[in-house]
Design goal:
alpha/beta, 18 helices
Length: 504
């Protein structure tokens, strides 16, 4: 028996999607989660993991390292033990918080020739086809360093482990550095970023409270039973089927998935979820495997759905306790697939490929194909990411090009308000104490404004900008004057290099 959440609604089978833009579904649709009426894992006595079954089977088929994150009692170790029993392979279960290195590799002893040999024990890693490293977030740093090469390259002490195929680990949720709460476990430390990045799949195991009543009842009343031969055979056939389908899946969807990885990596970086080059390559292979796994039971599954399941099961930041805004990530995911449906000549693909929000909106100024909503979303995103000064420079550019006319009312009002702070002469009236910090800031505003060259066409705009930001309290310290001015100049220079002509 196992722990996970209730089964979700299954997607309606569709015609197999291929990589060409013309054949990718024309309209966005809600993301579906996998559900199979007779799940392979359920046949092993593991209930409630239907949603994650494609990921688990994909990890088996590709022998990709997998990290399970979940509360205690969520059947993390039971899952691997039942799978290994079904596959008929030997495995080792180590508690990383308690293990000594000698337990892992045996006891070193030089032989007659002076060569170092290891006296093996039944618990040593040599000869194992699978290892399960439990409580990995509670291990000592020196032990983590020794476990690292086993997970990353199937080696120990520089010696290869040729029999080792599956490398799995488990941990309780670590405390979030941003939002510590009562759900965190004392002693469960955030995993080192480099180590977390070696796990191709990082999976959150559903909790007891997320399960359906039926599955909760099965857990309460169930008893461990021997795995039936037909259930073991079903697992082996599923793993082999996925492995066999990978070449055809790559032929059909490889190009689309590669473009998806490139684009979603840019969005993820903006959400403070950086994806390394290694992670990008792993994500691509995982996309193929998860799609093949899901397609096994639901032929014609949409790549939008399989890629979302893959993405949310491959974020190493989960192991560090990072807060992940799944709503914004899903919006980015949907935006990428919306872009991938476009013809390759469509300029909106160029916008989606531009990682910098300011450069993206500057490009968007010249694309008449964009709807008002699309352009407004680019403009609002760029304005939100800029600091005072740069934000005003962009607003001025959008006013000067007439692009404000292609914005929805709320965004147009924001642009006009920012532009007003630099375009209108500022009447500054305030009482300040001589020698105070506020007085010093005002003196710096006056000094910088006077130092601006008379021939500078932006002179009046800069004077108004600095005066308005001082009046609003944005400029609180003397260095803030330079920060606002530098931000203005940087964005103003970007705008000057952009095409100022736009047909509304």
């Amino acid at each position: 028996m196992g722990i996970a959440h209730a089964a979700s609604t299954a997607p309606t089978p569709r015609t197999r999607t291929r990589a060409s833009n013309a054949q990718i579904a024309a309209h966005p649709a809600p993301i579906h989660t996998p559900r199979t009426p007779h799940a392979a894992l359920r046949s092993l006595g593991i209930v409630g993991l239907d949603t994650l079954e494609p990921v688990i089977l994909a990890a088996l088929a590709t022998e990709t390292p997998l990290l399970l994150i979940g509360a205690h009692g969520t059947a993390k170790s039971l899952l691997l033990s039942r799978l290994c029993e079904a596959l008929g392979i030997s495995w080792r279960h180590y508690n990383a918080s308690l293990i000594n290195y000698d337990d892992l590799i045996g006891y070193p002893l030089p032989d007659a020739s002076g060569e170092l040999k290891f006296i093996q024990t039944p618990a040593s890693v040599w000869g194992a086809a699978a290892v399960f490293i439990d409580e990995i977030s509670r291990a000592r740093p020196d032990m983590l360093n020794r476990l690292f090469p086993i997970i990353h390259e199937r080696k120990v002490q520089g010696l290869p482990l040729p029999a080792l195929r599956f490398r799995w680990a488990a941990m309780n949720p670590p405390a979030s550095p941003d939002h510590p709460d009562d759900t965190a476990y004392a002693g469960s430390e955030p995993l080192d970023a480099a180590l977390a990045d070696r796990f191709g799949f990082v999976v959150q195991v559903p909790s007891w409270h997320a399960m359906s009543e039926q599955d909760q009842h099965r857990v309460i009343t169930g008893q461990p039973e021997a795995i039936a031969p037909e259930a073991a055979e079903a697992i082996r056939e599923a793993v082999q089927h996925i492995a066999n389908r990978l070449p055809a899946t790559e032929l059909a969807l490889g190009e689309a998935f590669a473009e998806y990885v490139r684009c979603i990596a840019q969005h993820a970086a903006r959400l403070q979820l950086p994806i390394s080059g290694r992670r990008a390559a792993m994500l691509y292979r995982n996309l193929l495997a998860v799609h093949a796994a899901w397609d096994r039971t639901r032929p014609g599954v949409r790549p939008e759905d399989s890629s979302w399941l893959t993405l949310t099961s491959a974020l190493p930041q989960l192991a560090s306790g990072a807060s992940i805004d799944h709503a914004r990530l899903q919006l980015a995911h949907n935006e990428v697939w919306k872009t991938l449906r476009l013809d390759r000549g469509d300029p909106r693909r160029l916008l989606a490929a531009e990682p910098d929000a300011v450069r993206r909106v500057l490009l968007a100024v010249n694309f008449d194909q964009l709807s008002t909503q699309e352009f407004s979303s680019y403009a609002a995103d760029a304005l939100a990411r800029l600091t005072p000064g740069g934000r005003h420079a962009l607003a001025a550019h959008l006013m000067e090009t007439g692009a404000i006319g292609h914005s929805i009312a709320a965004v147009a009002e924001q642009i006009a308000g920012l532009f007003g702070e630099v375009a209108m002469a500022q009447s500054v009236k305030a009482k300040v104490v001589s020698g105070s910090n506020t007085h010093a800031c005002w003196q710096e505003v006056v000094r910088v404004s006077a130092a601006t060259e008379q021939r500078d066409p932006d002179r009046a705009l800069i004077e108004n900008l600095l005066a308005s930001q001082w009046s609003k309290g944005v400029i609180k310290l003397v260095p803030d004057v330079a920060k606002v001015l530098d931000s203005w100049k940087q964005v103003r220079a970007l705008c000057a290099g952009a095409n100022h002509v736009r047909t509304i």
